[in-house]
Amino acid sequence: MPKKNLRNTKGRIISAAWKLFYEQGYEDTTVEDIVFESETSKGSFYHYFNGKDDLLGTLAHVFDEKYEELKTTMDPAMHAADKLLYLNHELFAMIDASVSLDLLTRLLSTQLLARGEKHLLDRSRTYFKLLRQIISDGQRGGQLRANFTVNEIVKAYALWERALLYDWCLCGGEYSITAYSDRMTPLFLDSYRVPQA
Known about the structure:
This protein is an all-alpha fold. Helices cover 69% and strands 0% of the residues. Helix 1 packs across helix 2 (31-38), helix 7 (126-140) crosses helix 8 and helix 8 (150-170) runs antiparallel to helix 9. The longest helix has 23 residues, at 2-24. The chain is elongated and about 60 Å long.
């Protein structure tokens, strides 16, 4: 039980930080603001993080919390490709609504420069587990092509989403990532669908 409380403390700190980063900007958010918003202590904060910059690598955690939520709202009867479209739409809508372009750019930059852990590529994330489950179920159900391995499709899909995120950041957020992805991702996924007879 204490282990769960520790995870909850870390999760509260991360959630509070990203809420504040969005509302008042990264530069204007202090560790004290994060501690106050998360209703934790400075000791707890520094137990998990060396400083505010460490939180830039935690956006993957925020995304995974969203995926945990989406797992419960996704219709299990949907076609596997439609499940992927649903996840994509909902995550990008969350990014459009609550993750600033500056913060996403900082995160992607840290991932490019990181020598050690690259949070976005961590295969133990909820994101990758969910993708593997949807794709393997889709192949078993004859919905997705079986001439690619599950891992090949997972890698291609994750690469597709990262490419959209990087392009959106490079373009300075001049378009809605949700609207663009809603138009283009179905075309990408069509190459993996088993054609209807």
